[in-house]
Amino acid sequence: MKTTAEKPAQQGFDRRYDVQGLDAIDVAVLDTFAYVREDDLAAYPGEPMEIEITTDEFSPVCPWSGLPDFGQLHIRYLPRDRCVELKSLKYYLTSYRFVGIYHEHATRRLLADLVKLLDPLKMEVRCDYGMRGGLNTVCTVRYAAPAPDAVQEG
Prior knowledge:
Elements: E1 32-34, E2 51-58, E3 71-78, E4 82-84, H1 86-94, H2 103-118, E5 122-132, E6 135-144
Antiparallel strand pairs: 1-4, 2-3, 3-5, 5-6
C-alpha cells in the first residue's frame, strides 16, 4: 500500500488552473429591446422573423483542467415580444471566460438564461466545441413555447 503520491512522469502534467463557479455567469448584464417598434405602423407580411446570432468567440473553460475551450456558438430564435441586445449578449458570453463548466452544461445554461430573458416562441442553441483528443463535441438544445391553452366552451 502506497502512502505517498507518485510524481507525474513530466513536470506540469499535474497542473490545474483555477476556475470560477456558475455564479460568475453575468445574467444581469443581458438586455432586450422590443421586437416591433411602437412608432412603426407598417404591418409586415409573412411568418415571424427568425433571428440567428453566431460567434466563434465563446470560450468557457474545462472544469477539470481550467484550460479554455473554444466553441462556435449559434443562437436561433423566433421572438415573441423581445429581442436580445447584442452588446449585452457579448458581455454575458464573455462572463463564461473563466467559468469551469462542461460543454453540455454550458449549452443548456445558455438556453435556460435566454428563454427566461426573452420568452421566445422557439429557440435553438448549438455549440460546436471543436476537436479535442480526436473527438468533436457538438451540443444542441431546443425550446418551443407551450401551445396556448384551448378555450373551453361551456
